[in-house]
Amino acid sequence: MNTNLSATTALAARLLLASLFLISGVGKIAAPAATKAYIAYAGLPAPDLAYLVAILVEVGFGLALVLGYRTRAVALVMAIFTLATALVFHHNFADQNQMIHFLKNISITGGLLQVVAFGAGAYSLDARRGRMLKPAY
């Protein structure tokens, strides 16, 4: 594959994956009470802590994914978070909407694992940092 096309595709993939997390995180910030109530309704302990973790992963790690900063580790944490979210919040397969959300989360987990496997690509802070660390002979 063309190097520029590969780098552009990797950037586009990171942006598309991160967009869902960023929009969701901003929505949680805008409605903390409703988010915490939903977390409590799902039976998770410590809704306040779970809320903060969700904001950190969705907004903080989402931005790191966009920038391509420590991308493989960030994508792995996001994949684990997304899989856990599917299992905790979308396990009622009798409800077709929940089944769709579950499958969406599983698909997103797969996309994030691709990022773990192949990295951020050339248009990322990781690549820039790698170039800066190489000795200039």
Describe this structure in words.
- The chain is an all-alpha fold and 137 residues long.
- It has one domain.
- Helices cover 80% and strands 0% of the residues.
- It is built from six helices and no strands.
- It has helices spanning 3-30, 32-41, 47-67, 71-89, 96-118, 125-133.
- Helix 1 (3-30) packs across helix 5.
- The longest helix has 28 residues, at 3-30.
Estimate the global geometry from the Cα principal axes: globular
Give the number of helices.
6
Proportion of residues in helical segments: over 70%
Order of helices and strands: HHHHHH
Give a quick set of tags describing it.
137 residues, 6 helices, mainly alpha
Strand and helix map with partners:
Elements: H1 3-30, H2 32-41, H3 47-67, H4 71-89, H5 96-118, H6 125-133
In short:
By secondary structure, the chain is mostly helical. It has helices at residues 3-30, 32-41, 47-67, 71-89, 96-118, 125-133.
